[in-house]
Amino acid sequence: MDQPWVYIVLFGLVFIIYAKIIPKASTTKGQANPTLHEIEEAMEHFTAELDDQNKALVQLLAETKRDYEVQTAKLTSRLEIVERQSTLTNQELSKLGFAYDELQKKAAYPPEKKEMIELQKTTVEDTVADVVDPPVAMNLKTRYVELFTLFEQGKSVEHIAKKLNMNKGEVNLIFQLAKQEEKLNAH
In sequence order, which residues have a C-beta less than 8 Å from that of residue 151 and are 6 or more positions away? Predict the structure, then answer.
């Protein structure tokens, strides 16, 4: 193996093998870069979708909050109306209670104090007349005719509330106030 042509052939073979290996390594590097690029594009697409979904979720939450605030405002106004009605009813009850007490006192006085009663009679009768003849709008059965008609038909409170677009608590309150009104009218 001392001949130079053997060294040249061996060197050529090594060079050929090396030449075949190097292009393959560079092509694998070239293929790795598009794969990395595809991954980056997929990640960018994924983050864009997440951003769109987050924006839609924030918008949905904002709309839900607005709807909640509108419903709260409606319920607050209804509650104020019911409270005002309750206050007026309580005032009427107080007047009726006062008139009832006055009538009880009048009935409890012996005949010798009748002169003093005669002096107070006009004020008591005026008070009783004011209390006994409440305005027609304060009579719950005439004010809520449809509600009481449904109740007399045997409909449930839930059904009545849905049909008349009222709260169940409001319907129950009207029934309770009507019962109190009937008791007061019975006396």
Answer: 160, 175
